[in-house]
Write a sequence for this structure.
């Protein structure tokens, strides 16, 4: 085989593999609370809007109660068609289902995101980073670490996930697939406080790897009467007591640190 034909063959093979991979992605599964419209070709009397009950069933003319919860839409279409055919109601039914409201498979995104709310799972391979994006991303005051709660195999799940590290440190294995009923909570980003002879006293976000020197810069640096040489930090110890420390400018800032820029004596 010539190099040219080998190249063409390889490209065709890659395209076929890619198409198969896309076809094998999980489809949406109907769940309790979903509202659907069922239509049967050339049988307008069988057009019905119905809701999937908590036990996964629907009530449909002629066939009565039918369980479709957990099925994909094509599988549910086949199940209804089979029930109509086996009941001798229609010989070759062509059934189509339209999803009107997705209530059964939703994930709640709460806290400091730009659009908190409940969002439907359109496929069953949606990852936590995608749900954060659907909710508009983490807000300016939101933390990089989010909390995921839900149920897996009948057991409660609680997992803290550092969203930034998924990409900064290539920890893509932590980008878990979410499931119906999951709750994603984004807490506020830890802050530090600066006061005294600082240009801009106040509360500021603790950034990754932030040093005392960088914290001073966030506060605008010392005033003309202040000095960075006599910086004090008030930090809560493990026993709950407040400690007064004299840090180096290269030391890391910790959440809820209180930095006091003292007045220069000279």
């Amino acid at each position: 085989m010539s190099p040219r034909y080998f190249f063409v063959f390889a490209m065709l093979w890659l395209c076929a593999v890619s198409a198969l991979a896309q076809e094998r992605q999980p489809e949406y599964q109907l769940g309790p609370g979903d509202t659907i419209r069922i239509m049967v070709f050339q049988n307008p009397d069988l057009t019905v809007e119905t809701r999937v009950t908590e036990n996964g069933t629907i009530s449909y003319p002629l066939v009565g109660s039918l369980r479709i919860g957990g099925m994909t839409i094509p599988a549910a279409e086949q199940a209804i068609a089979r029930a109509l055919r086996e009941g001798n109601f229609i010989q070759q039914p062509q059934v189509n289902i339209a999803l009107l409201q997705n209530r059964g498979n939703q994930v709640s995104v709460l806290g400091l995101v730009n659009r908190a709310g409940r969002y439907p799972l359109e496929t069953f391979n949606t990852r936590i980073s995608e749900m954060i994006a659907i909710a508009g991303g983490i807000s300016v005051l939101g933390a990089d670490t989010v909390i995921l709660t839900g149920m897996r195999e009948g057991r409660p799940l609680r997992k803290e996930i550092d969203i930034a590290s998924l990409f900064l440190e290539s920890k893509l294995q932590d980008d878990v697939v979410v499931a119906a009923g999951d709750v994603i909570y984004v807490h506020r980003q830890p802050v530090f406080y600066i006061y005294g002879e600082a240009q801009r006293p106040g509360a500021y976000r603790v950034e990754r790897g932030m040093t005392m020197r960088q914290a001073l810069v966030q506060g605008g640096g010392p005033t003309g009467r202040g000095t960075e040489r006599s910086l004090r930090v008030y930090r809560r110890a493990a026993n709950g007591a407040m400690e007064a420390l004299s840090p180096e400018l290269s030391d890391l800032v910790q959440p809820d640190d209180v930095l006091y820029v003292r007045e220069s004596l000279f």
